Amino acid sequence: MRSELKVSEILWKSWSCFSTAFLNFFFCLISMINSSTPGSSRKLWENMAIQDFAGFLLLAFWFCLHIFS
Question: Has residue 48 got a pLDDT over 70?
């Protein structure tokens, strides 16, 4: 019973983090595409999208480690 609870807890936390990172990345991309101001504002959105994508990859890696270990 305890191991089943732990697995479902890990799945829920992993899915929560994974989906949040994906949504952040997605909305940053949309904002970057819709941004009509050139220059530093666009560069800021690009940097945010890159950071969110890196976070998304790290969370996916963490998720796989917990699932397969």
Answer: yes
